[in-house]
Amino acid sequence: MRLTWLALFAIVLLTGCGGSLNPLYRVDVQQGNLFDKATVESLKEGMSKRQVLLVMGSPAVVSPFDQNRWDYVSTVRRGRGQMETKDLTLHFKDDALVKIEGDYFPENPEQLIKDAQKYKREYPDEKRPEDDKKKKKQGS
User: Fold this and answer.
1) Exposed site from 52, 91, 134, 140, fewest CB < 10 Å?
2) CA atoms of 57 and 32, how far apart (whole Å)
3) Which of 123, 105, 103, 126 shows the shortest CA–CA distance to 115?
4) Residue (of 88, 102, 95) closest to 46 by Cα position
């Protein structure tokens, strides 16, 4: 009976609330507005709020005191690593975009491929490094 309780207690400790001693896998978590380089670079000064809304989507934060400032906030935590936070702020004047400041998570094909290989997924050929394309053609 004691052995059963001891085993049950050990299982509860190992599968607990995700503490740092938990040996189980922890998923990558992405929250907020995650933009690639092309999306952010498509913003041009002079665009209306409506045009920006169509390109970027709704901002995470619109201040009730300053309707001419939109903040897009995003976070990424890969496994048990540190959380990365990026803030992109857009400033408007007379319903036109006048200033873009902050940063974003640029699309990095090498990182995407590395992450995909971790889950045994494949990306289309245009995202693969050239040497991987050659290996694939030789193997076919």
Assistant:
1) 140
2) 11
3) 123
4) 95
Does residue 15 lie within any of the structural domains?
A: no
Q: How many domains does the chain have?
A: 1
Does residue 70 form part of some domain?
yes
In a domain? residue 14 = no
Render each residue's pLDDT in the chain as its tens digit; 140 residues.
788 888 877 777 666 555 555 566 677 787 887 777 788 889 999 999 999 999 999 998 888 888 899 999 888 887 778 888 888 999 999 999 999 998 876 666 566 566 656 655 555 555 556 655 556 566 55
Region at 13 (left for phi over 0; alpha for psi -120 to 50; beta for the rest): alpha
Note whether 68 and 92 are within 8 A (CB).
Answer: yes
Distance, CA of 88 to CA of 100 (rounded, Å): 7
Q: Do 47 and 56 meet the contact criterion of CB atoms below 8 Å apart?
A: no
Query: In terms of residue numbers, what domain contains 82?
Result: 27-130
Q: Is residue 35 included in any domain, yes or no?
A: yes
The CA distance from 118 to 90, in Å, is 35
